[in-house]
Design goal:
- The protein is an all-beta fold and 480 residues long.
- 2% of the residues lie in helices and 42% in strands.
- The protein contains two helices and 33 strands.
- Strands 1, 10, 13, 15, 17, 18 and 20 form a seven-stranded mixed sheet that branches. Strands 24-23-26-31-28-29 form a six-stranded mixed sheet, with no helix packed on it.
- Strand 17 and strand 18 form a beta hairpin.
- The chain is globular and about 60 Å long.
- Bound molecules: copper (II) ion.
- The site of copper (II) ion has 5 residues, from loops.
Length: 480
């Protein structure tokens, strides 16, 4: 999905994105008949959930469930503060939930069963209405539990970009591209594909003194990778001109894997994390991005040639995770040169601003019960698998400090719904002013975040890896 622009914001709706406008549905109970109501306001967007085929490359066609026959789904672009109506038509045989990731919306429209959002019934429809905020790179995706069915929830093609444009954004770029990272044809395996070998310099403050000798269980693995709907080399290249500033809006829409991306011969100037501008934009050679996360980066096209933007792991890139970046009037094979060794560190984008003292600190300890060969790992939050009755309670207006203790040997992207948090500390390194909704807590690592409880309603917290959340790695916050 590539949008060109001359550096101006172009809030666009519905039809200009190739979406259908349809009359609004009746507002009564779910499972209601589908006839339109003449007096209803037309929806700004309509998403149709249905089986579809994705041609990842010539003769590589997979079948999945998608939104409006597109992968990623249609770009939903809106203005900050806009009242938005999205009609979702579910043409499958199972209830579905569409979650608006990173938006401040009430629990009833957040698209989460555990928060009490009603489902989009099988062969039925549901209207979601919300105010578009906060501004930035958001996204939408299925929030259905999949358990052992690797053809449901985020294992499918049900994901898309949701862009909320701010009137205050200067938009200094020549081209804007939306790039979603994905794997396809998931299967279970004892290989944990995405874990990087630990750096001897890693602090691992949560590493137990006695190692756990039990054998790990199955994790989700994949043979095919893509950026958007194409494997490397199969789609149109990203065409650029020398001197252009290209804004890349990166999304990891994977159900399972953390990815690391580099663009040979270029650096990424990271300007926003999870859609929120960072206080200290920095150039990096490699971007690490976990399921659920977004990174906005500007690339100055100052090295003419034909290059590969791709996963730094050879296996993932050769299995498709990449896109060719082609300067005008250049010909020949696309080049890959491994980036300099580098570690992703959120804190370089932060500030040294002081943190107001929290009203309360909540410690959250995450542990794995290894599944052994052929079994699934289960996950504990403070000693228990989901659900936790009345354990996590917010009082409106109070400032909370959440301390995430990852006592497992793999990294987890932890996500909180309907709220944003400020990163305070990562493995002992202090930082400030980095606002996120998903944070990678490294293996045996610790992250501390501050959050103001200002969005009453049930609020789900979970690891964004589908298998982990489905097998215990979730908690529900309530407001007192
Ligand atoms: Cu996890």
């Amino acid at each position: 999905m590539i949008a060109t622009g001359a550096g101006k914001l172009r809030p666009v709706l519905g039809e200009s994105q190739g979406l259908q406008r349809v009359p609004g549905p009746p507002q009564h109970a779910m499972g209601a008949p589908l006839e339109p109501r003449a007096s209803g306001r037309a929806a700004d967007f309509t998403l149709q959930i249905a089986p579809m085929l994705v041609e990842l490359a010539p003769q590589v066609v997979i079948s999945t469930i998608g939104y409006s026959n597109k992968v990623p789904g249609p770009l939903l672009r809106m203005r900050e503060g806009q009242h938005v109506t999205v009609d979702v038509v579910n043409e499958t045989d199972v209830p579905e939930y569409v979650h608006w990731h990173g938006l401040f919306v009430p629990s009833e429209v957040d698209g989460v069963e555990e928060e009490g959002t009603p489902p989009v019934p099988p062969h039925g429809r549901r209207r979601y209405q919300f105010v578009a905020r906060p501004a930035g790179s958001r996204w939408y995706h299925s929030h259905t539990a999949a358990m052992m069915d690797l053809h449901r929830g985020t294992y499918t093609g049900q994901f898309g970009f949701l862009m909320i444009d701010s009137a205050a954004d200067p938009g200094r770029y020549d081209q804007e591209v939306f790039l979603a990272l994905r794997e396809w044809e998931y299967f279970l395996s004892t290989v944990d594909q995405d874990e990087m070998p630990p750096d001897p310099k890693d602090l691992m403050p949560e590493k137990p003194t006695k190692p756990d000798l039990r054998q790990d269980g199955l994790e989700v693995n994949a043979p095919l990778y893509s950026i958007n709907d194409k494997i490397l080399g199969a789609g149109d290249p990203l065409r650029v001109q020398p001197g252009q500033r290209v804004l890349m809006r990166l999304l990891n829409a994977s159900a399972a894997q953390i990815h690391r991306l580099a663009l040979s011969g270029h650096k990424f100037q990271v300007i926003a994390l999870d859609g929120n501008p960072v206080p200290t934009p920095q150039p990096v050679d490699v971007i690490e991005i976990a399921p659920g996360e977004r990174v906005d980066a500007i690339v100055e096209m100052n090295n003419p040639g034909i290059w590969i933007l791709g996963e730094i792991r050879d296996g993932a890139r050769q299995a498709g995770m990449g896109i060719v970046v082609e300067y005008g009037n250049r010909q020949g094979p696309a080049q890959w040169t491994p980036p300099p060794r580098s570690r992703w560190d959120y804190t370089i984008f932060g500030s040294a601003a002081p943190h107001p003292a929290p009203d309360q600190t909540i410690d959250m300890v995450f542990e794995k019960i290894p599944g052994g060969p052929g079994g699934i790992n289960h996950w504990l939050v403070n000693g228990k698998e989901y659900p936790h009755d009345g354990e996590f309670v917010f009082r409106q207006g109070l400032r909370y400090r959440l301390v995430f203790h990852n006592r497992s040997n793999d990294s987890h992207p932890l996500h909180i719904h309907r709220h944003m948090f400020e990163l305070v500390e990562l493995n002992g390194k202090p930082t400030a002013s980095i606002m996120k909704d998903t944070v990678i807590v490294p293996a045996f690592g610790r992250a501390t975040v501050d959050l103001v409880a200002d969005h009453p309603g049930l609020t789900l917290f979970h690891c964004h890896m589908q298998l982990h959340m489905d097998f215990g790695f979730m908690a529900l916050f309530r407001y007192a």
